[in-house]
Amino acid sequence: MIPRYVVDFDLDNLPRVDTDVIVIGAGIAGLFTTLKVSETKKVLMITKKSLFDSNTRYAQGGIAAVISEDDSPEFHRQDTLIAGAGLCDSAAVDVLVHEGPQGVQELVRYGTNFDEEDGQFALTKEGAHSQRRILHANGDATGFEIVRALAEKVQNDPAVELWDDHFVIDLLTEDGECRGAIVQKPDGSRVAVFGNAIILCTGGTGQLYRYTTNPEVATGDGVAMAYRAGAIIRDMEFIQFHPTSLCYPGAPRFLISEAVRGEGAYLRNIRGERFMERYHPQLELAPRDVVARAIVSEMEATKSTYVYIDITHESPDMVRHRFPTIYEYCLQYGLDLTTDWIPVAPAAHYMMGGVRTDLYGETNIKRLFACGEASSTGVHGANRLASNSLSEAIVFGQRIVDRINELPKSSRTMKLKIDLERHTLPAGTVIERRLKLQKLMVRYAGLRRDRAGLEKGLEELKRQLPIFQTALTRREELEFINLLTCAVLTTEAALSREESRGAHFREDFPIKNDDEWRKHTTLQREQGVGEEQVNYV
Predict the structure, then answer these.
(1) Ranges for all domains in the chain classified under CATH 3.90.700.10
(2) Neighbours of 510 (CB within 10 A)
(3) Cα 375 to the chain's mean position, in Å?
(4) Cα separations (Å) of 83 from 58, 128, 290, 383?
(5) What's any one GO cellular component for it (predicted)?
């Protein structure tokens, strides 16, 4: 079994830091909630690398919100529910679509410069959206612009203390409440931090897979430490694979935004044939899971490792203007988006599940909140609608701050000593273990799954669990045990759900089964795998 705490410590002998609110992680969730809560409280913001290392920074497409007079919250709600394949929490979706526009205005107030046309926000359309409602910045660099604006404000905020390059190891809990966390400093020493509220903004689990659009820091730390602390983890089987990441020798798996297809790009197999009509009536703008599996089927049928995305029939000026980042990036590898078909393949992109929260971002552990990709608010269901992730972070970030402002003071006295016999981990094994884990997840718990593969994958993962009995000191070791925890959770959830829905596809149960499986999977450290009804009206 995965232990409650992964390192030894004695709170009496550790340096202690007290603050009002602890925010763990950066990205739009961490930056936005930090700025909001700092209006009334002292905030300690802890990032394991820097303010600029998060998935948000790489978000190209944009942020979905009802801005146009032709659009309505009801349209946005409907699109979200359809993409979520019956597992969305309808109350959470209502919150998102009605409060999203105000959240966008807050981003503008904080200095985010969204693209405009004729004095109005420039809106585009993405897969499975019925209306143009995606705001973007600098064409295809929306995330970077949001992070730029918010990070600048955070760095100049006197109410914020910023700890870059610090690693949060475990959450400290007592009597069903979260009191703080154990943190490892850059020099390897440790400190106990205590706060009235703790917000996990730690992002997703993209590094579970060998091919991913996620940065190196996406190792599921928040989900893993919340699980160890007793939080309910929900819907971990739903991992969204982005259909179109650059697949070219020597190039990282760079995201080719869904907005490229939104602006008219075609998908072609290596024979040059458009193929999406064989898979879905919405063609290239079908939901992401459908497009990703279609691409894998075409790759298998043509014995290729990629397909092409083709926007050469659109105006070169439009392509360069609308997608400057993608255009310039591809040029570095000798690929011209305006004249060449670009080789692409699916890559792990987004985690729909996470730490279960209520409509104010609070988990089942009092004073512990989760925001952004680390959370499971119920908005995304079995398949996230494009560009809803940034909206979710600001909408629920605001609600978390509203709840924290009502919290009574915590009595922060806590004594705890963890002292277990732990043996030394052999040097140099973590990189090998991580690569082995990533390959295993691609093979057994990737885009297509079945019982035999999932059972084999789970068995191999569980063979790695003795690492928890070792003395873990380096960041890479701590990241690996978090990845291992999340890999076990994802595989267990995928094994329990005997149907195909959204981003979870079982070849041995290829049909969606609403009678038996229109419910969430839950995982809790003491209780194991469970189920929960969907709040769907």
Answers:
(1) 241-348
(2) 11
(3) 8
(4) 22, 7, 11, 6
(5) cytoplasm
Dump the DSSP string for 444-491.
Answer: HSSSSB-HHHHHHHHHHHHTTGGGGGEE--SHHHHHHHHHHHHHHHHH
CATH H-level superfamily of 9-238+352-406:
FAD/NAD(P)-binding domain (3.50.50.60)
Question: How far apart are alpha carbons 113 and 200 in whole angstroms?
Answer: 27
Instruction: Compute and round to an integer the Cα radius of gyration of the chain.
Output: 22
Three-state DSSP at 233 gives: strand
CATH 1.20.58.100 residue spans of the chain: 423-512
Domain 241-348 has CATH 3.90.700.10: yes
CA dist 364 and 362 (Å) reads 7
- H runs (alpha helix) in 308-387: 316-322, 324-332
423-512 architecture in CATH? Up-down Bundle (1.20)
Three-state DSSP state, 373: helix
Active site residues: 288
Question: Over the range 4-37, which residues count as b (16 or more CB within 10 Å of their CB) and which as e?
Answer: ebbbebebeebeebebbbbbbbbbbbbbbbbbbb
Tokens, residue 349: 């992109």
Question: How many CB atoms lie under 10 A from the CB of residue 75?
Answer: 17
Tokens of 153: 């404000």
Angle of helix 27-37 relative to helix 142-155, nearest 10 degrees, comes to: 30
Residues 6+ apart with CB under 8 A from 158: none
Cut 0.90: pTM above it: yes
Tell me how long the chain is.
537
Are 128 and 9 a contacting pair, CB within 8 Å?
no
**Residue recorded with tokens 């503008």:** 108
Q: Can you give the pLDDT of all 537 residues of the chain as single tens digits?
A: 899 999 999 999 999 999 999 999 988 999 999 999 999 999 999 999 888 767 666 666 789 999 999 999 999 999 999 999 999 999 999 999 999 999 999 999 999 999 999 999 999 887 788 999 999 998 878 888 999 999 999 999 999 999 999 999 999 999 999 999 999 999 999 999 999 999 999 999 999 999 998 888 999 999 999 999 999 999 999 999 999 999 999 998 888 988 899 899 999 999 999 999 999 999 998 888 889 999 999 999 999 999 999 999 999 999 999 999 999 999 999 999 999 999 999 999 999 999 999 999 999 999 999 999 999 999 999 999 989 999 999 999 999 999 999 999 987 679 999 998 898 887 778 999 999 999 999 999 999 999 999 999 999 999 999 999 999 999 999 999 999 999 999 999 999 999 999 999 999 999 999 999 999 999 999 999 999 999 865
CA distance 309 to 329: 15
What is the three-class DSSP state of 72?
A: coil
Phi, psi dihedrals of residue 148, rounded to the nearest 5°: -55, -50
Give CA–CA dist 25/53, Å, rounded.
Answer: 9
